[in-house]
Amino acid sequence: MMISPRRHVLADAWPVLVLFAAASCREPATRIEFVSYDDPYFPETSQVGFESCYYHVDCSGDLHIACCQPPPQEEQDPARRLLYIRVFWPVRPGVTFADKTGTNAVIRYLDIRPEGLAVYGGTGFVYCQKPGSKKIAATLESGRLQLQLQRGQGAEFRDARISGKLQPHLDGPATVDLLRELELYGGPR
User: Torsion angle of alpha carbons 41, 149, 87, 160, nearest 10°?
Assistant: First the structure.
């Protein structure tokens, strides 16, 4: 039995199409979970995935992580979320004492929508693996956010716990651009 050349090409292209479809449907590598305690008897959980996440280390050794959703080039969606984390005391396993109930980071989160703006601020514990490499893995634990500023009806919660996994890429200019956008909407950090 002879296989037509057209069928042969489609048979070879099938694995590539499956991989392309799987890659386009994957979830963002940076995922943050919020647990709102506005009603203490019924906490509400929500998640936000950030497709763009960058970091840089300043001259004093502080680690600055900035994430945005949607990515800067895809601004069709009128809603925009910005997350900024400044780790002022990086944990070094085996060298520094680390306790996940401690605090080593300042967190700001902005939720910008057509209905309004909500600016949240708080603290948390961030553990980073391989700081200084092109891509790092950071874990945000024991974070807490409170509503600091609200314009319009943009607030989803008043008080929440925050945790998640981040995978920022080393990109100083992109980090600074997101920090400028954060200051434009939410005021100085």
Answer: 10
Q: SS3 sequence, 51-103? A: CEEEEEECCCCCEEEEEEECCCCCCCCCCEEEEEEEECCCCCCCCCCCCCCCC
Tell me the CA distances in angstroms from 31 to 34, 93, 103, one per residue in order: 10, 24, 20
67: β partners:
53, 83
DSSP 40: T
Residue with tokens 């961030």: 126
β-bridge pairing 169-170 and 52-57? parallel
Q: How far apart (Å, rounded) are the C-alpha atoms in residues 14 and 74?
A: 29
Highest mean pLDDT among 9-23, 89-103, 143-157: 143-157
* Average pLDDT value for the chain: 79
